[in-house]
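Attaching the record inline, Q. Sequence:
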Amino acid sequence: MLAQDRIESAVAEASPSLSRVGRWMSTHPIRTLSHSAEEIASLTGTSVAAINRFARAAGFEGFTDLKAVLGEELQSAVEPLRKLASPKSKARPVKGRAKAPVIDADALHRAIMQPQIQRVAGRLLKARQVWLLGLGTSSYLVGYAAHALTPYLPRVWAIAGEGGTEEAARRLSRCGRGDVLVAVSLPRYSKDTVRLTTFARERGAYIIAITDSADAPLAGAARLLLLAPGEHPVMPSSALGALAVIEAIAAEVARLNPDAAKVAREMSELVLSYLATAHPK
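Structure, as predicted:
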């Protein structure tokens, strides 16, 4: 059981004073990591002894152990705070000196040259339906993926969080064998992305995951994993790597689609009247 779940479970069975401690920790998990036992005792009107008693009631050796376990679970959530607090993030660039790129060019090149890209494109072209799942920041990425893939695939559905998780689950209830789900997840990772991906896998869909690490929560649910560099010096993560991977997939789908030239020509003719094709004189 996760530390946050253990804390919430212990609240229901704790005495009134210990419940105050647990409710405060449950409401403020990040502040729990940065505050001392003395500070939390003052904020909750309890004592240091009560803080440690609650931690033990929740199944930890004490408050120090609770913070250690909770800190490991919340690492991706608190990392942006550490970045912003770092002196490096506040340093101004020297005049005339170019800034370092957000993502290393070699890492980006490796991501878009993964041999799995071609495998993914082949899967998408053979799929009965293609589902694209992304919540939070990743919702914008799957929206772009739908835009790029729709001309070359017969049935593409983007599930980007409109209507909440309940609506996403309702849409995914139509997926099944023969379908492919492409799920995107970057720090800060969404629990619901993992839950919905697992749901689609249980219904027989083939799961392709795009994320930044083989240790990411979504990685374990995937049949095929594509890694994209996601480090950013200030923000929780960079979407550039995942966007580049999505573009590489779309380009490969277009390349492998035998009707791509015909589709591109018809699409260009359709939208031509909406395009600015020359500078006005």
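The chain has a mean pLDDT of 86. DSSP finds 15 helices and five strands in the chain.

More tomorrow.
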